[in-house]
Amino acid sequence: MRSKNLSTWEESLCSDGQSGCPWLHYAQPGDKEPQNRFMPRWQQERLAASRNRCNSDIDLVTFENRTIITYSWGDQLSMPYNHIAMAEWSGGGVEVFLESFFPVTTPAAARAAR
């Protein structure tokens, strides 16, 4: 689903999973694995025990023609803080990332263009 105004929603041309559009996924077990090899063991254990019930405070930035997404995640109940996470989309900068949710072609045309 997609919306240009958050009031009206429509089926996205990306919904077939084949058009090359960015996808937002449900949390996966590996999402909480620290990427900082210097993180102390007690912080790793606290991270592993945290519940992921909400995401907030998203920031998007273009860096070396990639979209870097940083956000806060946690549950705001079991811990007195949330965790900071990062994701990367290598399909282009922020403008391309956001526009890709609204492709002008049909899914079949997008597949044929590859």
- Oligomer category: single chain
H/E element order: HEEEHH
Radius of gyration: 17 Å
Count of separate DSSP helical elements: 3
Category from helices, strands and their pairing = alpha+beta
Fraction of residues in H or I helices: 10-25%
Strands side by side in the biggest sheet: 1-2-3
In terms of DSSP E residues, the strand content is 15-25%
Distance between the termini: 23 Å
Beta-strand segment tally? 3
* Dominant shape: globular
Largest sheet: 3 strands, antiparallel
Summarize model confidence as the mean pLDDT. Answer: 75
Report the uncertain regions: none
Write a concise synopsis of the structure shown.
19% of the residues lie in helices and 23% in strands. The chain has 114 residues and is of the alpha+beta class. A hairpin with a 2-residue loop joins strand 1 and strand 2.
Topology:
Elements: H1 41-49, E1 54-63, E2 66-74, E3 83-89, H2 94-99, H3 107-113
Antiparallel strand pairs: 1-2, 2-3
Give a description of the structure:
Helix content is 19%, strand content 23%. With 114 residues, it is of the alpha+beta class. It has a domain at 51-114.
What are the defining features of this structure?
single chain, 114 residues, alpha+beta, three-stranded antiparallel beta sheet, 3 helices, 3 strands
